[in-house]
Amino acid sequence: MKKNYKISIHFNFKADELPRAYAVDARDSTQRKRKDERKKGMRKNQFRAFAGVAALSLCLGLGMAAMPANVKAAEIQWNEETISAVSLAPGNDETELNFGWYSTGTDDARVRFGTSENLTDEDIVVGGYLKNIEDQGYVLQVGKGEDITGTQNDTINADYYANKVTVTGLKENTTYYYQVMKDGKWSDTQTYQTKSFSDFSFLYVGDPQIGASGDPVSDAASWENVLNQATANHDVSFMVSAGDQINNTDGDSEGEYAGYLGATALRSLPVATTIGNHDSKNPNYSYHFNYPNSQFGAARAYNQGKTDAGTDYYYSYGNVLFIVLDTNNYNCATHENVIRKAIESNPDAKWRVVTFHQDIYGAAQNHSDSDGMVLRTQLTPIFDKYNIDVVLQGHDHTYSRTYQLTSDGKEHVKYSNDGKIEGTVKYDKNDFTYQKESASCYEVKSNVVGGTIENPEGTVYYEANSATGSKYYDMYNPVQNYIAEKSQTYTPTYSVINVTEDTFSVATYDYTTNAPVDGSSTYTIKKTEKQEELPPADDDKQNITNITNNNYTINVNKNDDQSAQTPAAATTALKKVKGVKVANKAGNKVKVQWNTVDAADGYQIQYSYKKGFKKQVKTVNVNKANKSSKVIKKMKVGKKVYVKVRAFQNVNGQKVYGNFSKVKNVTVR
Q: Are 528 and 502 in contact (CB under 8 A)?
């Protein structure tokens, strides 16, 4: 395939004075001097550039360009390999790993993965993508990468395809090796190591925002160094990024994605990314990152108002359920539906953690009292309702942690960015009512600043500072009454979160000192009580049901109107399926039979090798009303499989389900 892509990047900098953009609003000369000293010191510690003024001009495909002479740690390789670098992401649970990468081949969605360094074709796992085909809905294109021609203003990806693969069956504390297919050839072998599936640690970072300083190479070098230090000093299983991976959301972002993805640590460190405002206007985010339980292709209730970058999603690891929201989407009905869906899929998770970008409880000048808190009056009571333990935020480029917070239990004005969502008002940061409503919708439930708190009421909210130093904001003064501690050192930071059966502990580190951030302390929640059960569904939401499985055709409602909240789904009086029988068939097959149900349009079979249907649940849809059996292939020989069946009707473009049958089981022969 002819390669038409071209990218030119020009940077000018002096030795020890690499340009960075610090979005600050300081009015005190002493504060300015202190910040300038910190920034200058940070630059000296991070970079050693050649003297004088240098210009870097790079045309991909024409060879490597000169780089600064002595970049600390590994040099950043700005070439085709970084543009198409593999991004790893957590899978649906700790036994899965997701891959995403660019290539120029049309059939490259394939990964070799195994415990032997000498990988063979027997280790191949095939992926694909969902394509919307007229009269068929979304159909999995096996082994294919998605053609990303036409991405907004980008100059390098007209010939690229986005490949996505999920590997399953991982075991804890095991070393694996992998290769991905690129342009019809296998890449170099990389190493990936799983950790414990019970007690574990992960990184939490905010706003890498490659390019925000005006110097993407400098930002990428800082990103490289921070991740190298964090992973060398802390044994982590994965990383959570609270959004703004890149800066240029309105234009050509691929050079910045190259800087983000080029970090050496990311070859073996899965990242659960979040859509920030600087990611949200460009579909490249969804092409690069293969996040689990995407709501793309789900019923409208789960993706209404979605941005160009993608949707909410969720995953679990050990005893933690992670729910990731795109708060650039101001439709909170969508977010609540996804939260409920995630908890229904992971009812036994002891800890519930939500990540999103805009900080509804932050401590910096630029956002915490303006656009950051737009959704505060809506999300706070939702987090109460679903017993969310911890919220991880970005956007404000400072460090802060709140006390334990709940809603005040009262009705408040609901806000959105433009007021077009039904029941909301357009926010105005200078409006007295907006400030009053946002300041009165919560209650502080603790006075613990640091240390350990046991079985607390409410939710704690964290705000992460920049992980690269590409941009900082000043602190808001006076201190908001919900803030337990805050800090702005004008240095890159990262947090390490340690999880055990009963504790969830967060410590935040300064990259320049490799020590805890000034003004921060370790905060540990100890929870000896069981997680509360899912609350009853609201009457207008209880029948909204959709299960997405990339192995089967998915029919969706294509209407994506952002101007209204999700309408109530229609109700149905379908009877429970009876007469279910499960029997072995030759060739690793199982036959499922049932009695048909009056008024049904079809049936859904769910099966799992786990008795409680808590993990690894597979779904098969039978789209014929009069069909009463289905043969399921490629079953696991020697394993006991549990099966249940329910009927559904197609109502207003959505599947509305009856109750499941009794569970039947058989050992596969």
A: yes
